Amino acid sequence: MSGTDTSGAGGERLRRWRMVxxxxxxxxxxxxxxxxxxxxxxxxxxxxxxxGEAGSRRTSGARSAGLGGSAPxxxxxxxxxxxxxxxxxxxxxxxxxxxxxxxxxxxxEPEMLEAVEPDVHLVGTLLSLNKAxxxxxxxxxxxxxxKVVEQLEKRxxxxxxxxxxxxxxxxxxxxxxxxxxxxxxxxxxANLKNYLPEYRTVVPERLIGYxxxxxxxxxxxILCIDQxxxxxxxxxxxxxxxxxxxxxxxxxxxxxxxxxxxxxLTDQLDDPVDVLFGTQLGGGTDINRALAYCQxxxxxxxxxxxxxxxxxxxxxxxNEMLKRVAAMKGAGVEFVTLLALSDEGAPAYDREHAxxxxxxxxxxxxxxxxxxxxxxxxxxEKRPLPAP
Length: 388
What we know:
This protein is an alpha/beta fold. The protein contains 14 helices and eight strands.
């Protein structure tokens, strides 16, 4: 069947099956690829078609090309996949190449970084290599990270500020407002039972007003972020959100990262890229120590939200960790536990600790970046969290 005609609907089906199956005697299509299709197949084969660790299938022809761990080959391959596939597919293939072919160390070369498609997962990989990164690569890496951060800020910042500003206004409403601070819509709704038909008016027995949230700090937020290796995407998103929150005058924001040590990166919040390069992905986990530090920084418990972002695998003292959460809750702190802050959903996590936190009134759940503003708004207003 070699050289089967691929024109027409049947031929197009064969062509697609050939691209999926990868060629060789066993694919059964008998379909030969040429031109752009052959080049796309070669790019796929270099990643998914080799033997050993590079892929699960052994095939002949272009599908066994491989990348060979060579920087020039990889750079050329990165250029090819950007030519033939959309950005979303390129990001998946890059991630697979790093995981399947062990290409992380090649990212320490500036030429390689300039060829990749930046995304959150690539940023996580770069951060894990931060300490091994030579100075010649560092500026290129920062440029890649900054590009991703700017994309995320553009996507998330406006909506986050709008959502939280509304929540702060609502949480600051007062019952004895000055005339110019009265929220007339809510006041009328609250007093409809006092409507006088003969006068066609509502008697405002109870006035509801806005506090002046924009003029002073009304809430304090502490982001406490686990920087173990599995939390890379969460660290990236949390750093961006931390910078957005820090830009709001009515929220005092603190950002703390931890493994077995605790690092306060609050003074770097004006630039999330500096925050990210101040993290050190990997290592152990001591949640209890991190929460002890956060607890020591709380001055107004009733106006404080603590957000713990962790998979809850605790290497410290479990009972002490739970006692700290209970103490903060008892003092009036709103405590939020996120197993992940990413688009991928919940990673592996310690279910026993998650259940124990839920029993304390701090349910643990994974949160997407798009849901995070609503979660924070609910916490600021002290209402039930919109857990997915």
